[in-house]
Write a structure and sequence with these properties.
By secondary structure, the protein is of the alpha/beta class. It contains 12 helices and 12 strands. The protein folds into 2 domains: 126 residues, Rossmann fold (3-Layer(aba) Sandwich), CATH 3.40.50; 183 residues, Rossmann fold (3-Layer(aba) Sandwich). A 7-stranded parallel beta sheet has the order 8-7-6-9-10-11-12, with helices on both faces. Helix 4 links the parallel strand 4 and strand 5. The longest helix is centred in the last third of the chain and has 19 residues. It is globular, with a radius of gyration of 22 Å. Bound molecules: (2R)-2,3-dihydroxypropanoic acid (DGY). (2R)-2,3-dihydroxypropanoic acid binds next to loops. Keywords: Oxidoreductase. Its EC number is 1.1.1.215. GO terms for molecular function: gluconate 2-dehydrogenase activity.
Length: 327
């Protein structure tokens, strides 16, 4: 029996390759360099499945892939999907929820702590031989424990952050979300508030909302103006949920104390981006879920979604917008 043809655009573990190969005739992109759009179009000519990470799946790409049935993202975010184009061509799209929640929540906390306590700034200070006993007061940071954390976007990752904040750091947790999470409110005492109230009252503001048409530039000049001048802003969602110019303006003009960023408007971030020169900004290269174990679990989940879709099943992580009334 001839197998289904699939293209795997990212490097994955041998064990996962073997799993997919049981069901599919696979081609792997095993080069160190990222595949170009043109190269990808070539690879998609005859395939029925694609496993990838963050490729723009739009009308242009789909027009080069007439047999494509499923695109399996190895990420929880799926803002790379043009849902309308995929729907109109009947192409399924999946993501990898659940397996990365705690890993991303850990990273968010490392951004909170390192920004508040100036960890990366002071690490370079020591390594550059600048440590001077008389300098102590210039090294002060701000407390994390017993302060107020505001989480925008209370999904599974938001919950994992709230748990760490409440149980580990005795923080009061405010949240803003499309829907209320009553179970979380009774479990952890988190408080649902309007976006403005959250921005006004929080010491730490964590943006975790997915990027959609509604959330693009959710945090803009007006929102930074509402924040405390001692606030720390953390973004581990997608860069475009924030107007980056407004963020730079807020930091330059000391409207907020600092920022911890894992995501940017353009990635990899431009070398000239002023955020990279600011000592009160901790910058990471979009590594929210990047531990070896979690990335393996994400790739395996993506592989299972791919195989399910290609073999005629409804994949377990078919994204809600692409579900039809009967699945
Ligand atoms: C995700 O899974 O969406 C993370 O941001 C990694 O891309």
């Amino acid at each position: 029996m001839s197998k289904f043809k699939v293209f795997i655009e990212k490097s994955i573990a041998d064990e996962i390759k073997e799993y997919i190969s049981q069901y599919c005739d696979c081609k792997f992109w095993d080069y160190d360099k990222k595949i170009s759009r043109e190269e990808l179009f070539q690879e998609l000519k005859n395939v029925e499945g694609l496993l990838e990470n963050g490729e723009r799946i739009d009308e242009e790409l789909l027009s080069h892939a007439p047999n494509l049935k499923i695109v399996s993202n190895s990420s929880v975010g799926y803002n790379n999907f043009d849902l309308k184009a995929m729907k109109s061509r009947g192409v399924m799209g999946t993501n990898t929820p659940y397996v990365l929640d705690d890993t991303v929540a850990d990273l968010v906390f490392s951004l909170i702590l390192s920004t508040a306590r100036r960890v990366t700034e002071l690490d370079s200070y020591v390594k550059q031989g600048k440590w001077n006993k008389n300098d102590e007061k210039n090294l002060y940071g701000i407390d994390v424990h017993h302060t107020t954390l505001g989480i925008i976007g209370m999904g599974r990752i938001g919950r994992a952050i709230a748990k760490r904040a409440k149980l580990g750091f005795d923080m009061d947790v405010l949240y803003h979300n499309r829907s209320r999470k009553y179970d979380l409110e009774s479990e952890l005492g988190t408080k649902y508030v309007s976006l403005d109230t959250l921005l006004i009252q929080s010491d730490y503001i964590v943006l975790m909302t997915p990027l959609t048409d509604e959330t693009e530039h959710l945090i803009d000049y007006k929102e930074f103006d509402l924040m405390k001048d001692t606030a720390i802003f953390i973004n581990a969602s997608r860069g475009k949920t924030v107007n980056e110019e407004a963020l730079i303006n807020a930091l330059k003009n000391k409207k907020i104390f600092g920022a911890g960023l894992d995501v940017y408007d353009v990635e990899p971030v431009n070398k000239d981006n002023p955020l990279l020169k600011m000592p009160n900004v901790v910058t990471l290269p979009h590594i929210g879920s990047a531990t070896a174990r979690t990335r393996f679990d994400m790739d395996m989940r993506a592989a299972k979604n791919l195989v399910q879709g290609i073999t005629g099943k409804i994949p377990q992580d078919l994204v809600p917008e692409l579900k039809s009334a009967d699945n």
